[in-house]
Design goal:
With about 140 residues, the chain is of the alpha/beta class. Helices cover about 40% and strands about 20% of the residues. Helix 2 packs parallel to helix 3. The mean pLDDT is about 85.
Length: about 140
């Protein structure tokens, strides 16, 4: 789940490199479409951007508005509908807003577990034009 097309392409490309195109990738770009997708099928892995838009831009649907903690809503939806789906948070920000408190990315996994009882496989900071996020994703995937 990612609302930036450039970042989405990087994620898609990296997953295809790892799994040699043996992976089926479903994409959504907003909270509304993520909720519908999660209700319609089961997933092994979810990669979630924490700051997303409310809904996809559509004629007559009103302008989508940014949700700085919309990714948390997706985590709650995964917990409710998916059961055993592993989640990785991938964000370009150094902090994640959890109940309006900025939590450093490296501490967010434990904070989400402590506050909400939701297990996240990992939290990774995405920095454009750097490869470090890919290495961190690989390390998390190796542990799953």
């Amino acid at each position: 789940m990612e609302d930036d097309e450039f970042k989405m392409e990087g994620i898609r490309s990296h997953l295809n490199d790892i799994f040699q195109d043996r992976v089926e990738i479903s994409e959504c770009h907003a909270l509304g479409s993520a909720t519908v997708l999660l209700a319609s099928q089961k997933f092994d892995l979810a990669i979630i951007d924490m700051s997303i838009h409310s809904h996809e831009p559509e004629a007559g649907a009103g302008s989508p508005f940014p949700l700085s903690s919309g990714g948390l809503d997706v985590l709650f939806e995964i917990e409710y509908t998916q059961g055993e789906t592993h989640s990785i948070i991938l964000t370009q920000y150094p902090d994640i807003d959890i109940e309006e408190v900025p939590i450093p990315v490296e501490l967010a996994k434990q904070e989400i577990q402590d506050k909400f009882g939701i297990k996240v496989a990992g939290c990774v900071r995405y920095i454009e034009n750097e490869e470090h996020w890919k290495k961190n994703i690989n390390l998390i995937l190796e542990q799953l």
